[in-house]
Amino acid sequence: CPSVPAKGAMMDNRFATALVIACVLSLISTIYMAASIGTDFWYEYHTLSPAENVSEAGRSIWEEFVSKDADEKTYTDALFRCNGTVGLWRRCITVPKNSHWYSPPETDMTTNCISFSLSDQFVEKYIEPGNHNSGTDLNRTYLWRLQFLLPFVSIGLMCFGALIGLCACACRSLYPAIATGVLHFLAGLCTLGLVGCYVAGIELLHKKLPLPEDVKGEFGWSFCLACVSAPLQFMAAALFIWAARTNRKEFTLLKAYRVA
C-alpha cells in the first residue's frame, strides 16, 4: 500500500524535527547554566555613595574583605557598602583606585573580587552571622551547600544525556531518547532546586543582616540565566520523551498493520 510508506516518512520527519529542537534547547540551557555558574552577578547590591563609604573606613574595608579570615558578616557588610556582587564562586566589591584615608573620594572605581574556597562552600553558617558562639544555622548551611552542588549535578546529567543521545544516533534508534529525556528532566529539577535554594538563602541572610536604608539589593543576570535554563531543560525533556514514545507506538501500529 503506497500510503503506508508515505505516512511512515511523514512521522519520521516529525520525530526528527522534535529531536533537533530538543537538542537545540538542551545546548542553549547548557550554555546558560555554564555562564551562570561562571559569572558573579547572582545578587547585586547598589549603594548610593560607595566611594564616600569606603573613604570613611580607609583601606580596611577591602583588606578585611579579601582576608582569608573574613567571616560572613564582614564580607556581607562590605558588599552592602561597596556596590557588591555575589556569585556561586566569587564575591566582588567596587572601590576607588589607590584610596587612602587622607585623600578625598575618587570617582575612578575598580572592582576587586575574591573566590570562595572549597572549604568556604561547606563551612557552617551561624544563627548570628559572624558570631561563632551562636550555634549552627542548619537551614542556611545546607541551602548554601546545595546551591554549590546542584548546578554541577544538573550539567553532569545533561552531558550524560547527550552521550546517550549520541549512542542513540549511532544505533539509529529513538528508544534511548527516553533516557535522555528523563536525565534532562532530572537536570531541570536540579536547576529549579538551585534557584529555590539561592532565593531562600538570600532571604534568610537578609533577615539576619537587614539591608541598610541607602542600599538596594536585586537578583542579577547570572541568576536570570539559571531561571531561564530550567524551563528549557523541561521542554527538551518533554520533546525527547514524546518523540521516543510516539515513534515506538507508531512503529508498533505500523508493524501490526503490515502483519494484518
Automatic annotation (TrEMBL):
<dbReference type="Pfam" id="PF13903">
    <property type="entry name" value="Claudin_2"/>
</dbReference>
<protein>
    <submittedName>
        <fullName>CLDN1 protein</fullName>
    </submittedName>
</protein>
<keyword id="KW-0812">Transmembrane</keyword>
<dbReference type="InterPro" id="IPR042356">
    <property type="entry name" value="CLDN1"/>
</dbReference>
<feature type="transmembrane region" description="Helical">
    <location>
        <begin position="15"/>
        <end position="35"/>
    </location>
</feature>
<dbReference type="GO" id="GO:0016020">
    <property type="term" value="C:membrane"/>
</dbReference>
<feature type="transmembrane region" description="Helical">
    <location>
        <begin position="148"/>
        <end position="170"/>
    </location>
</feature>
<feature type="transmembrane region" description="Helical">
    <location>
        <begin position="182"/>
        <end position="201"/>
    </location>
</feature>
<keyword id="KW-1133">Transmembrane helix</keyword>
<dbReference type="InterPro" id="IPR004031">
    <property type="entry name" value="PMP22/EMP/MP20/Claudin"/>
</dbReference>
<feature type="transmembrane region" description="Helical">
    <location>
        <begin position="221"/>
        <end position="244"/>
    </location>
</feature>
<keyword id="KW-0472">Membrane</keyword>
